[in-house]
Amino acid sequence: MPGEFYVEDKKLKSDLTEIKNSVTQIQNNISQVTNNVTTLVTKSEGMAPVTGSATGDWQAAESDVVNIGVHNTRYKVQSLLLSIHNLAGNIITVRMYMTVNGNERRVYEQSFDASADPPGLWIINGTVGIHEALRVTLQSNNAADNGKTVDYDYMLEVM
């Protein structure tokens, strides 16, 4: 009969329906896992890198270089690089601001020396999760830096 297995020596019949159901369940589980993995891999590919530049009066006042992300949208910032190759100041201060509980707060500050530090600064090197706009600013202590261009490059991944 279909669905039965006959063992010659023992004259025993076994119903294979339970085994067939188990195999079907395993196939369904594998399909579901494959779909989940495909979704994760597709999502983790990230977005196209963003590059640009900003010109400011860096010595006159702290000025915005770039804003990354938007309000109420979750991202993973994978990297942020700034280029200070056009600047001459020996105190180049990079700051980042983000809204914390409704108020913009400074969340990062570091100073660099344009003549001693590398011309490319890796400000974020690794994953930082954000859900508000991340504002990046720069300030120099040298008036010769006013009107100069600061390049940036960053990579985001949607969460």
Blueprint (SSEs and pairs):
Layout: E1 4-7, E2 12-15, H1 17-43, E3 50-56, E4 63-68, E5 75-83, E6 92-100, E7 103-112, E8 120-130, E9 134-140, E10 148-158
What does this structure look like?
The structure is a single chain. By secondary structure, this protein is of the alpha+beta class. The chain folds into two domains: about 5-45, no CATH class; about 50-159, Sandwich (Jelly Rolls). Helix content is about 15%, strand content about 50%. The protein contains one helix and ten strands, in the order ββαββββββββ. The protein has a four-stranded antiparallel sheet, with no helix packed on it. The protein has a four-stranded antiparallel sheet with strand order 4-9-6-7, with no helix packed on it. The longest helix is centred in the first third of the chain and has 27 residues, at about 15-45.
